[in-house]
Amino acid sequence: MTECKSLLKDISYQVIKGSDDRSVSSVVYNSDQVEKDCMFICIVGAKFDAHEKAAEAAEKGAAVLVVSHEVKLPKDASVTVIKVEDTRYAMAFISAAYFGNPADKLKVIGITGTKGKTTTTYLVKSILEHAGHKVGLVGTIETIIGDKKIPAQNTTPESYILQKSFQEMLDAGCDMAVMEVSSQGLMQHRCQGFTFELGIFTNIEPDHIGPNEHKDFEDYMRCKGLLFKQCRKGIVNCDDAHWKQVTKEHTCQLLTYGFSREADLYADDVKLIKGEGFLGVDFKVKGLMDFEVEFHAPGRFSVYNALTAIAICHHFGIPADKMKEGLMEAKVKGRIELIKVSKDFALMIDYAHNAMALESLLTTLKEYEPGRLVCMFGCGGDRSKIRRYEMGEVSGRLADLTVITSDNPRTEKPEAIIEDIKTGIAKTEGRYIEIVDRREAIAYVIRYGKPGDVIVLAGKGHEDYQEIQGKKYPMDERDIIADVLAGRQDPPENADSL
User: How confident is residue 214, by pLDDT bands cut at 50, 70 and 90?
Assistant: First the structure.
């Protein structure tokens, strides 16, 4: 049992009913998990206000309710009611206290930005572990604690889950944690209750603007900037046009990185490199450090990702040789993930699932002057048709061959989605072939790959399922590629080589 008062020590509150001297058995914020003697935190969500479950929680035997507005309770309820200004904000501090403030015993690195967060977290983890640290990770794909990998529900989890993960990291022997920090997570106070050792800003573009997200781009930037009021040191990409606005209210020391020679740490003499089945970059790190890096991921954005990781690891005194080792061995599932299938052509899996991401990826790959740029993708069902038109037009314009296939059709017919994609391609002179079954489409692009090709399997990325008519079926593109190479998956019989 934990004393209620000790959980509330870092927040302002009023005791509306009962006493804060009560003890609680657990802390919960999901009404389905309410149990006898628990503290139930009533969260106001986008679609549901948990204050409506207050009476039910009291009847189930909850000891304490944490609320932000009035609740109706049975007259004989013996529950304590604590009122706070914002229950989400309060939950972050309550959760931290409940788990013993684990983040205070870790060096926590938070990375925010529109692009690059996921890749950079894995690069940082790889480098730090090559230097002898044990590192937990929280992000879009998964949470990694020791040998345990937990699929992610949100880029930045609710504060209770985050604090629980930090405690499990400590128990697993971790001394550091690296995490993606979304603007939504910052806006909803999921990262409150502790101070980041480092806060990182990669870049920002208009995104996540809508009724349940940010009202406008200014609000999006403001929320990103909250990280720099909650970290000991900030590391920011000074090439981004908005970096000063994002960090204008910072309370931390700032270090800059980028291509600009005015940055504290900058990349110079960048070269595109390619070899048997891979694409990459070679560049020199200048400023605070001076060494040369080879990184097997394509394009300018890969330089940024690597440089971000180097700037972070420089803070911890990691030597250049460990940085280079960590970068060479890092694996990021579904983010320009190069899969070796042939010495004659390169194949990669990428999560690009909208026009902006696909255009950025294909434009980057064209810089390597491939024999052919082959783009295989589909679009999700029950989503905007505009995305289908736009992605079709982008691939038709930039790829030498587009292979249109299925993504997650959900409740729609895959053939109907493909017709929408073809509407976009029709605005271009791009060549295409349609293969509805994604397994057969993958078999096709591998079987008919030509020397010098660069082949992209776009849209699914790290996903290991395909959603059809409300059910998720196992489907990992890496497994399909293995089946093709082993002769267990053939291309469609009616598909000709193009």
Answer: low
Same domain, 276 and 376: no
Closest CA to 461 of 374, 358, 338, 334: 334
Claim to verify: residue 151 and residue 288 sit in the same structural domain: yes
**Predicted model pTM:** 0.94
CA 146 centroid distance within chain: 19
What is the tally of structural domains in the chain?
Answer: 3
Dist. CA 6–CA 271, nearest whole Å: 56
3-state helix/strand/coil string of 265-296: EEEEEEEEEEECCEEEEEEEEEECCCEEEEEC
Please determine, for residue 497, whether its predicted confidence score (pLDDT) is greater than 70.
no
Phi then psi dihedrals of residue 83, to 5 deg: -105, 130
Helices 355-366 and 300-315: crossing angle in degrees, nearest 10, is: 100
Residue 210: per-residue pLDDT: 55
Q: Verify that 317 and 267 share a domain, yes or no.
A: yes
The pLDDT of residue 206:
60
Residue carrying structure tokens 């948990």:
50
Concatenated DSSP letters of 329-375: H---TTSSEEE---SSSEEEEE---SHHHHHHHHHHHHTT--S-EEE
Is the distance from CB of 185 to CB of 144 less than 8 angstroms?
no
Radius of gyration of the chain (CA): 25
Asked if 270 and 225 count as a contact pair (C-beta separation under 8 A), the reply is: no
Would you state the structure tokens that stand for residue 256, as one six-digit string? Answer: 């800059």
Residue 43 lies in a domain: yes
Structure tokens at 151: 């699929």
d(CA 476, CA 466): 9
CA angle 76, 81, 83 (to 5 degrees): 150
Per-residue pLDDT reduced to its tens digit, 6-31: 999 999 999 999 999 999 999 999 99
Note the pLDDT tens digit of each residue in 379-429. Answer: 999 999 999 999 999 999 999 999 999 999 999 999 999 999 999 999 999
The CATH number covering residue 138 comes to: 3.40.1190.10
Tokens at residue 203, please? 């870049």
Coil, strand or helix at 316: coil
The tokens for 477 are: 């593109």
Taking each helix axis from N to C end, the angle separating 438-447 and 477-485, rounded to the nearest 10 degrees, works out to 50
Q: What pLDDT does residue 114 have?
A: 86
- Gap between the Cα atoms of 378 and 421, Å rounded: 8
What letter does residue 484 receive in the DSSP assignment?
H
Tokens of 142: 């998964």
The full length of the chain comes to 498
CB proximity list for 437: less than 8 A, separation 6 or greater:
405, 406, 492
Task: Indicate if 363 and 445 belong to the same structural domain.
Answer: yes
Domain of residue 76, residue span: 2-90
